[in-house]
Amino acid sequence: MAEETRVMKADVVIIGAGLAGLAAAAELGDRGKSVVIVDQEGPQNLGGQAFWSLGGLFMIDTPEQRRMGIKDSHALALNDWMGSAGFDRPEDAYPRKWAEAYLDFAAGEMRPWLHKMGLRWFPVVGWAERGGGFADGHGNSVPRFHITWGTGPGVLEHFIRRCKAHEDAGRITMLYRHRVDRIEMQGGAAKGISGATLAPDDAVQGARTNREAVGDFRVDASSVIVASGGIGGNFELIREIWPKERLGRAPETMLSGVPAHVDGRMIAISEQAGGQAINKDRLWFYTEGVKNWDPIWPEHGIRILPGPSAMWFDATGQRFAPPALPGFDTNGTFKAILDSGYDYSWFVLTQKVIKKEFALSGSEQNPDFTSAKWREVIKQRILSGTRATGPVEAFKEHGEDFVVADTLDELVAGMNGLAGAPLIDAAHLRAQITARDAQVDNPFSKDAQITAIQAARHYRGDKLIRTAKPHKFLDPANGPLIAVRLNLITRKTLGGLQTNLDSQMVGADGAVIPGLFAAGEVAGFGGGGYHGYNALEGTFLGGCIFSGRAAGRSEAIG
After folding, report:
1. 319-325 long-range CB contacts below 8 Å, 24 or more apart?
2. pLDDT tens-digit profile of 185-230?
3. Is pTM beyond 0.85 here?
4. How high is the pLDDT of residue 541?
5. What are the Cα distances from residue 313, in Å, to 125, 319, 338, 456, 466?
6. Model confidence over 476-500: pLDDT tens digits?
7. DSSP string covering 115-172
8. For all residues of the chain together, what is the average pLDDT?
9. What is the mean pLDDT of residues 97-122?
10. How many CB atoms lie within 10 A of CB 276?
C-alpha cells in the first residue's frame, strides 16, 4: 500500500538549505513568517557548498583594508566590477542592477551588519583575480578578499544560529531528505511545491547519497523561494551548455569542485513553472585543480590558491604568455589551456614558493583559519620552518599530481611519467627557467611575471604571507623543485534564473511570476548573473548572503 502524501502549510517554502536559503529564512523568521526549508540532503549537509568554502567575502573600503594601507572606494570597485562583467546582452539589465545594488551593500551596510551578527575577519586582506592588464578591464585593482575567521563554517554558524532560534520558536521547519519535483502553480502564481521523500542516508558530509524515493510530500505556501545552488556537480549538464564559441571545445577531463548534489535540477523545474534562466553559458571554473588524495565526492578536486611566483607551462612545457599568470585572469587562462589542445597544465616552482604562496581552497584544507585561533595560524604558517602548511605538505607527499625532485632532469622525467608520454623537453624547459632566473639579479625586469611579483610585494600583506622573495628556481639552495599538474575544475555557474530586485522570478515575457522567487547561485547570485563574464572572488558567498537577505526582506512576500 502506497504511503499517504504528507501535506504541510507555511507562508513561505524555501528550496535549499545552503547559505542563500538560510539567509532568506533568518530574515523571514525575523518578520514572523512561517517557513518550511526543504533539502534533498540530510542534516549533515546543512549549509551546502558554503561549508566547504574558504569564507572569503568581497567588501569595499573596510577597516581591514585601511589598516593594511589599501585605498579602496565604491567608485574604484564599480569600475573593476563593470570592466570584469562585460555586460553585453539585453538580458543583462537585471544582472547590472543587482551588481550595482551589491556594490552599494559591500561598500556600506554589509560589514557592520555582519559584524553585529558576529562575523570577524583575518586582518590580511587577500588580493584575488588581479586581472588581464588594463585599468578599465577585468580584475581587482586592490585587495578585497576578506577571509572570515572560521572560514565557510564561520560564515554559516551565525545564519544557522538565527534559523535555529526561529526553529525553536516554531517559525521554521526543516525537511531534510525531501526532493522537490514540481513547483505547484495555480492561475499563473506559485502555490507551493511537491516531491518525493528520500530514504535516510548517513553518508559523511559531501558524499554522494541515495535517491531512493520512499514517499510523497507537498507544501502549500503562497511564496516559494528557490535557493538550490548551481550545476557544478553535473558534468552532463555542464557539457550541454558549454560555451564553445567563446572557450572552444569542452574539456574531456574535469575535476569537480563541489559535491554531486550540486546538480542544477531545480533550474529546469523552475523554468517549467514559468521562470527563465539566462546567461547559462557563463561559467566560473578554475584552472588550478588537483585530485584530492582523500576524496569525499566523485571526481573530487581541490583548487590551489597560488601566489604570483610559480611558472606556468602548458602540457608540452611551453610557458603561457601574460596575463596567464597565477591569480590574474581565470577565464583567460582557462581558454589558453584549452587552446593548447590539452585539459591540463603545469606549475613549476620551488619549496620556497610552495611554503609561502600555496594555499588550498576550502575550510577542511585550512584547519588553522577554520579553528579561528591565532596560535594555530602562527603554528601552521610562521613556525613551520621551510615546510608549507600541513594540508599542502600532505598533497605534496600523497597527491598524484605532484612531482618533487632535486634536479630539473629528474623533475621533467616525473612530469613526463605522469603524462604517460615524453611531451616535455628538458632542454627547452631549462632554457625558459634560466631566462626567467636571470631577471631576478636586479630590481629591473622585462619579464611580466617578475614585474608582477615585485608589484605584489609592494603590498605589505602579500610581502608578509603570500609572495616569496624573488629567487632563482635552478639554484639548489632554493629547492627542491616541484611540478604540479593542474586540472580544470568545476565550481560556479555565473548565469541563472532571472529575478528583479525584489527577488521575484521574471519570465521570458518580462512579467513577474507571482509568488515565485530565487536567490543564491541558482539566480546567478542575483538577477540571473550579476557577475557577467568574470567573478572578482568573495562575490559568491557575498552574493548568497545579499540575494538571500533580499529575498527574505522582499516586500512581494506579504
Report:
1. 319/432, 320/345, 322/133, 322/448, 322/449, 323/131, 323/132, 323/133, 325/448, 325/449, 325/452
2. 999 999 999 999 999 999 999 999 999 999 999 999 999 999 999 9
3. yes
4. 98
5. 28, 4, 13, 21, 21
6. 999 999 999 999 999 999 999 999 9
7. HHHT--B-SSPB-----SS-TTSSS-SS--EEEBTTHHHHHHHHHHHHHHHHHHTTSE
8. 96
9. 98
10. 18
Q: Please, which residues have CB within 8 angstroms of residue 515's CB and are 6 or more apart in sequence?
A: 189, 190, 191, 222, 223, 224
* Residue 384: predicted pLDDT: 85
List 13's β-bridge partners, or say none.
36, 224
Q: Which of 345, 353, 325, 334 is nearest to 448 (CA)?
A: 325
- Cα separation, 488 vs 337, whole angstroms: 9
Vertex 423: Cα angle to 421 and 424 (nearest 5):
130
Burial zone of 201 (CB within 10 Å; 0-12 exposed, 13-18 middle, 19+ buried)? middle
Is the peptide bond prior to 476 cis by the omega test (within 30 degrees of 0)? no
237 φ/ψ angles, rounded to the nearest 5 degrees: -65, -40
- The torsion defined by the Cα of 108, 112, 118 and 122, in degrees rounded to 10, comes to 70
Provide the CA 66 distance to its chain's centre, in angstroms.
25
